[in-house]
Amino acid sequence: MTKNLFDKVQLSSGQTFENRLVMAPMTTQCSFHDGSVTDELVQYYTRRAGGPAAVIVESTFIDNYGRAFEGALGADSDDKIPGLTKLAEGIKDKGSKAIIQLYHAGRMGTPELNKGRQPISASNVAALRDNAVVPRTLEVEEIEEMIQLFADAAARAIKAGFDGVELHGANTYLLQQFFSPHSNRRDDEWGGSRENRLRFPRQVTEKVRQTAEEMGKTDFIIGYRFSPEELEEPGITFEDTMYLLNHLADYSIDYFHFSINNWQRTSIIDTTDEQLLLEKYLDNANDKLKKIPIMGAGGIKSVEDAEEAIAAGFDLMSVGKAHLINPDFVDCLKNNELPKSLLTEGDDEKLIIPAPLWNILGFLKEKK
Ligand SMILES: Cc1cc2nc3c(=O)[nH]c(=O)nc-3n(C[C@H](O)[C@H](O)[C@H](O)COP(=O)(O)O)c2cc1C
Q: Which Pfam families match (predicted)?
């Protein structure tokens, strides 16, 4: 059956996406210093809601010491719930599902961002980047507390009225750090074998689902974002990723979200391999996984791009930068209008872009 961009998509939790296009999570760095919601943030998201089936709110830290950015958004304490409620309501009132992405930076954090604290991770191995700090290895009790922190943040999202959360298992943050053989060198039940490295993402997912059920929110959406491969040695291979996803599929995940900068991405490890990662995924998905919608990402600028990605096999597509430069992107596609960039001088009011994102827009402007 041919898939249409404006088909409804049924999720396993019972909720429905009104179409196949979603606003991708994009960090805006415009929260208050404590991570609570600003009016600027509410305006930015509300302006872009309505067209996409769901708006995935940017990476949101679950622990006061788990930030990866200045101005990061947080769901780490109950006093953030009123602000998060405004955000969820703003998105839902326009007609999109409100989903919030939860993360802990782990070794990608720095003491400067986290009140002087040394970052933590699965093991004390620094990330391969300039000036990376060697993290402290989490004790077993701390791992159990960390799982609870993810669940507590999800509970706050529920109280604030969000329809779901996206667990940020990508972009080298803590969930990925536990699965990665580079950052996880443990020899206890939380590391070593692939089965043990799976334990943390698996238990976080399980606990979040259990928490939603205990709160009576049985239709709570849980998405999971993953980075398909790592360049580190040892690092996550695509085969490892299929192992991860085939197992996470047991925990009623509503969608899996590729974290890639272009939906047509091929392997970054074997650059001679021309097969799309998407095709590898479809070839290797078990029966449970095949029932879960997959969300692609990267490079959607027109209706043709989106249709091509859906025809290639994605069920949903997240759209990032096109939403920055055109807040009505999905409506334009729906109305058969060309999604023009509104990126011209003096567009601040039309675009409603938080100040830190102007740097990125400047970059996009140069590329036009
Ligand atoms: C400014 C900016 C911030 C981003 N922040 C996040 C983030 O918080 N979480 C995440 O998973 N991806 C993040 N991304 C990646 C996007 O979700 C998306 O996958 C990427 O931009 C490719 O899609 P696009 O070509 O449609 O922009 C960010 C991208 C941009 C441009």
A: Oxidored_FMN (PF00724)
- Over the stretch 10-22, which tens digit does the pLDDT of each residue have? 999 999 999 999 9
Annotation says 173 is catalytic: yes
HSE value, Cβ hemisphere, 13 Å, CA-based, for 41 = 28
Ligand 1 binding pocket includes 26 (Cβ within 6 Å): yes
- Going by alpha carbons, the residue nearest to atom 23 of ligand 1 is 298
In a 3-state reduction of DSSP, which class is residue 224? Answer: strand
- pLDDT at res. 325: 87
Which ligand 1 atom minimizes the distance to the CA of 260? 19
Instruction: Give the three-state DSSP class for 80.
Output: helix
DSSP line for 127-139: -SSTTPPPPEEPP
The gap between the terminal CA atoms of the chain, to the nearest Å, is 36
Domain made up of 9-367: CATH architecture: Alpha-Beta Barrel (3.20)
Annotated catalytic residue within 44, 45, 103, 173:
173
Q: Measuring from atom 1 of ligand 1, which residue has the nearest CA?
A: 26
> C-alpha distances in angstroms, 193 versus 65, 261, 279?
28, 29, 27
pLDDT tier at 351 (50, 70, 90 boundaries)?
Answer: confident
Q: Which atom of ligand 1 is nearest to the CA of 300?
A: 26
Residue 354 DSSP label: -
Cβ neighbours, 10 Å, residue 316: 25
Domain ranges within the chain, ordered by starting residue: 9-367
Q: With a 6 A CB cut-off, is 24 part of the ligand 1 pocket?
A: yes
For 103, the 3-state DSSP assignment is strand
Residue 213 has pLDDT above 90, yes or no: yes
**How many other C-beta atoms can be found within 10 angstroms of the C-beta atom of residue 74?**
24
Q: Compute the half-sphere exposure of residue 122: CA atoms within 13 Å on the CB side of its CA.
A: 28
Pocket flag, ligand 1, residue 22 (CB < 6 Å): no
